[in-house]
Amino acid sequence: xxxxxxxxxxxxxxxxxxxxxxxxxxxxxxxxxxxxxxxxxxxxxxxxxxxxxxxxxxxxxxxxxxxxxxxxxxxxxxxxxxxxxxxxxxxxxxxxxxxxxxxxxxxxxxxxxxxxxxxxxxxxxxxxxxxxxxxxxxxxxxxxxxxxxxxxxxxxxxxxxxxxxxxxxxxxxxxxxxxxxxxxxxxxxxxxxxxxxxxxxxxxxxxxxxxxxxxxxxxxxxxxxxxxxxxxxxxxxxxxxxxxxxxxxxxxxxxxxxxxxxxxxxxxxxxxxxxxxxxxxxxxxxxxxxxxxxxxxxxxxxxxxxxxxxxxxxxxxxxxxxxxxxxxxxxxxxxxxxxxxxxxxxxxxxxxxxxxxxxxxxxxxxxxxxxxxxxxxxxxxxxxxxxxxxxxxxxxxxxxxxxxxxxxxxxxxx
Length: 414
Prior knowledge:
The chain is an alpha+beta fold. The protein has two domains: 3-56 and 262-411, no CATH class; 67-257, no CATH class. It has helices at 3-14, 20-59, 77-84, 119-125, 151-157, 197-200, 208-215, 234-244, 254-257, 259-297, 299-307, 312-343, 345-356, 377-403, 407-411, and strands at 65-69, 90-105, 108-117, 132-135, 146-150, 164-175, 178-192, 203-207, 223-228, 249-253. The protein has a six-stranded mixed barrel with strand order 2-3-8-5-7-6, surrounded by four helices. Strand 6 (164-175) and strand 7 (178-192) form a beta hairpin. The longest helix is centred in the N-terminal third of the chain and has 40 residues, at 20-59. It is elongated and about 110 Å long.
């Protein structure tokens, strides 16, 4: 491409066309590309925000890495905790005892996961202590038989702070009347709300020593929960621990324990990228009709240029430049608009809701009632490149047709 082709191509782009319909189609193509790019950036940023919000809420209750043994119990957890603490990426560790049971109050019964914890250590690996609506985890002292539960679970049972509930465990005891389940009464000493229905409606915490007695585990615990400096390195740290620990341990990180959920979210993001990319593709290939009309309108100019010595390749380059300018302008406008929208989604959406008197995510229905947004530079670059490539592909056919124009045929009726 030389200066001559660039000059003519840019001149055609700037020149006032005799056919205003062609100018309108060109403007429509540019705005279509800009709108598609901006929508793609904004939607992917919102999905990134949802993904991070859900991950933080899940990992606020779950753990980055769990270590247990294949028989479901872990003995001498203190030595194991000291061992894993040598890894510089492990920030904290906490033991837990896990079991299933039924909570009963009055006529209501709810299935629940019971987790025995040490409050001082649990605060280092989970965020439940920061999501307490009433009470605190510090009330879970051994022998007090206190219980802390999710607020949705408390609502389903109809209990309030200070009430007493009965926990029924499947570990039965032998009596003259046969095998009967074990019953233990607990005092409701705290309520939490982490924003995930799975935990708010099905998780209850008790003191670890109380759980050991209730589930008859002796001095053993169910496992050890770890918190890492970087949760995204959990699979790698899990492999490092598997190589460094001596013993028959089962090590599982959060990407394995919640793999189906996060894989579904990632797949949804990829599908949305493909669907919204089609909007950009439609706008980009609208350039085909624009350039075809331009080539038809410029038949005489093409013939004169060919007569003056312009090669078919030069004619093709001229119209490719003209189409590329439209594609680049639309892409740049879309990138700027999309980035600004993604960075200000928390202001734009409430303004729309207030103006039209609507609410996109009702707090009565959705756990996340505000649209989170996380702009990732990688997404912006990928979207920009995809838009430019599609725009460039759209210029090939019309430009090739222009290069095949025969001067004598084009000038015959001029």
